[in-house]
Design a protein that fits this description.
Layout lengths: L1 E9 L3 E5 L2 E12 L7 E8 L2 H5 L6 E13 L2 E13 L34
Antiparallel strand pairs: 1-3, 1-5, 2-3, 3-4, 5-6
Length: 122
């Protein structure tokens, strides 16, 4: 799937250690369908060295290619929108727009970072 739009929020980098070693993740919010009366928003994430490679900034126009997945934890289901390709839509974007590979260990809920506002492990 693909969405083009403007980055409206860049969340802090989250780090941790799972069974496969160190990991880092960063989440971004993009506003798309900007010409409609009610623009839509979507949060997606990048993993590992791709965070530094793309250096996505607030206000940047980008096209995000992504996969949607979900996982179950304690009887509840959670969506995960993981970017695998980022392309610049304007001249202020980073030059590199390579593919983003998600780590294989990320599918396990126990390897994800804890949410500081709840007792869930991701």
């Amino acid at each position: 799937m693909e969405v083009s739009g403007k980055v409206i929020a860049v969340q802090p980098v989250q780090t941790g250690e799972g069974k496969n070693g160190q990991w880092k993740k960063q989440e971004y919010v993009i506003e798309y369908d900007q010409n409609s009366q009610y623009p839509r928003r979507m949060m997606f994430n990048l993993w590992g060295e791709k965070i530094d490679q793309h250096q996505i900034q607030d206000g940047q126009e980008i096209k995000v290619s992504f996969d949607i997945d979900c996982r179950e934890y304690n009887g509840r289901w959670y969506n995960d929108i993981r970017a695998w390709k980022i392309e610049a839509e304007d001249g202020n974007a980073p030059a590199d727009s390579g593919f983003v590979q998600a780590p294989q260990s990320a599918a396990s809920p126990m390897s994800l970072p804890p949410d500081e506002t709840s007792d869930l492990p991701f």
